[in-house]
């Protein structure tokens, strides 16, 4: 046996293992699942934003062809508790009940009020129109500021207020004192419109009961199978050990599937009552009403600075639209941004306050970036305003205020310790790729000659807190769970490898990247690694996928578990080679005795010898398998510089993105092709918010952008070509990755 040059997997642009099944249609979406005796659910939803349910009669639906059962909220109330909120951000937060089916009032258009069960989905949908229901209209609550007035109509009358909570943070010097000594004080109001997630796959759930043992398997298009299992147990009373949750192939989420939805609880309760498997799949227009929305915020920003453009202080006051109910992490989403408003900048004072407000609209919750992009938008807009006020170039103002690379690790004014970064390098590379000076010169010439088509140049130098999250930090933020992640490595007798991960992918490329990580540590071929995920019976431990945590926390757990396998294998190899463990080298999957290169064992050979257990060290269990549960010590902090040139026709309003350049620093790159894809997707969604997407309600609280005909999701034809590049400053975690 001779050493062979083996190309490192980490950093290699591998084609995704997942894609062959996806592009050939050999997928297992939740809606594809069919079992014997399957029944279908359809949900009747309120057409009104706010109303009292005076009368509801589901019995006429039972007369429709194919209908097996029909239930109102009252009919199912005994078996269903309130849907959970896992993030009570303050001790006195107002937490209303959230029944999976409305009981006495509906509080947003689309609030579910009844369910029909039929032998096919079309019969179930048709029978909804037979349900008789009388509503007494109540006044809608739509404007965030009006909702806080003393005489405002109440979304939850029993709570006596539309104010869900007030969450403050103040650090550094007193902001009033800083304001007094500042040369420049600017106040601006920004608005984050509501957004509607548009994952490629709609939400769906299938529940199959095993009546004899009281067990249930729940298939759901979810980002969080492990969390869903726990929460469904609390809502329905089904013991957790009797629930198995499977996230099969999941077609995107962007935060919208980081949720415990009423439809999942209703499906489980109906399956329990009928003893039959049931399925529910949302229509796209139904999803616009019932899947939680993103953003929805008024941002009042105040900055204090010197006339030379040095930032002295920042004050942020938010009004955050909770919608009608507090869902799984609704109240915490804007608070995640609290730590990001200071961004990459040094200052003497920071003051933040967020007021959560109930409205009669679809609840909000996590959506791509979850509170952090909102913060980046506000501070970067404010820095541009400061540059204009003091007569400096926007990039120069940033240079005068950002944390320099030699200052890392750096504790920000918000209390986070940024472990690494180089904002200067990313910015200089982006400026060169963009042709910044030439574009500024062209901009000046157009302005001077009064050209009706003006050139706008956008600058963003951002950072973000990823890798959610150290469990003790979550404790301090009153979040109900931890931020650890689990991984297991199983060395099979034939030398193949199974990686079991607690993260649950929905398009990110976990299977490919986890294979690359494990292959490098173990020294086995990439093709010999299989990744198992998304099933609480097969992967019993996990905290799932959200907050750019999968690679930073889950991938690091895989790395650590693989290292444990190598150390176990080292003991067996040393025994077989009659050598001390300290005398063994390990390279490219082969243990060899230092000074005696012919004495060697591959890790695959060691795996088989361990399986036979004919000759393993005394007292050693005959397995190389290893587990690791990793609780991160810190967040990770990717950063970058994005530059955009936009032509705007001042006479018609027509807008055209002329060029877009971004240079991101995501730490160590596992698979550059996957990074490129994720960057392109993020750019598409950012541009979509800036130019196209908004959830619009009329004065009665009806969603008037409730279909794709009214809510523009951009396609590739609506987007420019992107120029992307990277810098790399490794993070302080086992892989050096930042998310």
From TrEMBL:
Transmembrane segments: none annotated. SMART domains: Ald_Xan_dh_C. Keywords: Molybdenum, Oxidoreductase. It comes from the Bacteria. Residues 24-139 form the Aldehyde oxidase/xanthine dehydrogenase a/b hammerhead domain. Pfam families: Ald_Xan_dh_C (PF01315), MoCoBD_1 (PF02738), MoCoBD_2 (PF20256). This is Xanthine dehydrogenase family protein molybdopterin-binding subunit.
């Amino acid at each position: 046996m001779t050493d062979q040059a083996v190309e490192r997997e980490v950093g290699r642009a591998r084609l995704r293992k997942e894609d062959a099944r996806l592009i050939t249609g050999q997928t297992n979406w939740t809606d594809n699942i069919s079992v014997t005796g399957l029944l279908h659910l359809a949900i009747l939803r309120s057409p009104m934003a706010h109303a009292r349910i005076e009368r509801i009669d589901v019995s006429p639906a039972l007369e429709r062809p194919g209908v097996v059962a029909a239930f109102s909220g009252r009919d199912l109330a005994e078996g269903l508790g309130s849907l959970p909120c896992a993030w009570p951000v303050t001790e006195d937060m107002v937490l209303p009940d959230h029944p999976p089916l409305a009981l006495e009032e509906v509080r947003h258009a689309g609030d579910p009020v009844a369910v029909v069960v039929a032998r096919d989905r079309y019969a179930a949908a048709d029978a909804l129109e037979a349900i008789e229901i009388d509503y007494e209209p109540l006044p809608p609550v739509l404007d965030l500021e009006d909702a806080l007035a003393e005489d405002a109509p109440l979304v939850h009358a029993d709570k006596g207020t539309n104010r869900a909570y007030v969450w403050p943070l103040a650090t550094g010097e007193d902001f009033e004192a800083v304001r007094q000594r500042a040369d420049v004080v600017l106040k601006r109001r920004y608005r984050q419109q509501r957004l509607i997630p548009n994952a490629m796959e709609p939400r769906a759930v299938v529940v199959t009961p095993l009546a004899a043992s009281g067990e249930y398997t729940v298939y759901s298009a979810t980002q969080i199978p492990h969390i869903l299992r726990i929460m469904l147990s609390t809502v329905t009373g089904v013991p957790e050990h009797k629930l198995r949750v499977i996230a099969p192939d999941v077609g995107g989420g962007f935060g919208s599937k980081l949720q415990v939805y009423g439809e999942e609880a209703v499906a489980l309760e109906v399956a329990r009552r009928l003893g039959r498997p049931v399925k529910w799949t949302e229509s796209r227009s139904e999803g616009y009403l019932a899947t939680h929305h993103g953003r929805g915020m008024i941002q009042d920003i105040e900055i204090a600075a010197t006339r030379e453009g040095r930032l002295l202080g920042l004050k942020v006051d938010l009004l955050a639209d909770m919608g009608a109910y507090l869902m799984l992490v609704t109240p915490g989403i804007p608070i995640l941004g609290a730590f990001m408003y200071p961004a990459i900048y040094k200052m003497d004072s920071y003051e933040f306050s967020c007021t959560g407000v109930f409205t009669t609209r679809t609840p909000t919750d996590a959506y791509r970036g979850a509170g952090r992009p909102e913060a980046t938008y506000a501070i970067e807009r404010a820095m541009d305003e400061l540059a204009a006020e003091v007569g400096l170039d926007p990039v120069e103002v940033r240079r005068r205020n950002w944390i320099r690379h030699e200052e890392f690790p750096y504790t920000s004014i918000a209390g986070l310790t940024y472990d690494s970064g180089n904002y200067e390098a990313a910015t200089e590379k982006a400026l060169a790729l963009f042709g910044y000076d030439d574009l500024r010169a062209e901009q000046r010439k157009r302005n001077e000659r009064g050209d009706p088509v003006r050139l706008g140049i956008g600058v963003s130098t951002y950072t973000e807190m990823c890798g959610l999250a150290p469990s003790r930090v979550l404790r301090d933020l009153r979040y109900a769970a931890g931020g650890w992640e689990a991984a297991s490595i199983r060395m099979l007798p034939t030398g193949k490898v199974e990686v079991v991960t607690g993260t649950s992918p929905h398009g990110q490329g976990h299977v490919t990247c986890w294979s690359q990580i494990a292959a490098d540590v173990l020294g086995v071929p990439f093709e010999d690694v299989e990744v198992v995920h998304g099933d609480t019976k097969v992967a019993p431990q996990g905290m799932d996928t959200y907050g750019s945590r999968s690679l930073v926390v889950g991938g690091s757990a895989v790395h650590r578990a693989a290292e444990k396998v190598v150390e176990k294998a080292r003991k067996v190899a040393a025994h077989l080679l009659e050598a001390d463990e300290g005398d063994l080298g390990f390279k490219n999957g082969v243990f060899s005795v230092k000074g005696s290169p012919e004495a060697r064992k591959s890790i695959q050979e060691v795996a088989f010898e361990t399986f036979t257990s004919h000759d393993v060290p005394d007292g050693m269990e005959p397995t190389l398998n290893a587990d690791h549960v990793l609780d991160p010590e810190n967040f990770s902090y990717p950063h970058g510089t994005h530059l955009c040139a936009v032509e705007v026709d001042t006479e018609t309003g027509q807008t055209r993105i002329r060029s877009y350049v971004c240079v991101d620093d995501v730490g160590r790159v596992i698979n550059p092709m996957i990074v490129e894809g994720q960057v392109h997707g993020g750019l598409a969604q950012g541009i979509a918010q800036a130019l196209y997407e908004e959830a619009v309600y009329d004065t009665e609280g009806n969603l008037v952008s409730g279909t794709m005909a009214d809510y523009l999701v951009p396609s590739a034809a609506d987007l420019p070509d992107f120029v992307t590049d990277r810098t790399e400053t490794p993070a302080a975690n086992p892989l050096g990755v930042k998310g």
